[in-house]
Design a protein that fits this description.
Blueprint: H1 2-21, H2 28-48, H3 56-78
């Protein structure tokens, strides 16, 4: 249970940072969802290129990168924003 709470907090932080980087509007619930999905995407991406994420800083970096990718895809293909 504690691990789930930590994952959600890291996801929220990643989503928040990615929202600032990508200049995306959204509330904290959207940030948590984007951060969790982005963490998954970032983790897969890092595995594909041969990097391993082993600590909290690596998790935040991969989560932010993954969240930025998710925000870009959502804006480009679903919301038709440039």
């Amino acid at each position: 249970m504690f691990g789930l709470i930590i994952s959600l907090l890291i996801g929220a932080l990643c989503g928040y940072i990615a929202g600032i980087i990508m200049k995306s509007e959204g509330g904290w619930i959207r940030n948590v969802i984007l951060g969790v999905v982005g963490g998954f995407v970032g983790g897969l991406l890092f595995k594909l290129i041969g990097f391993t994420v082993s600590n909290i800083i690596g998790s935040i970096i991969s989560g932010v990168i993954g969240s930025c990718i998710v925000i870009f895809v959502i804006n480009k293909f679903f919301l038709n924003k440039r």
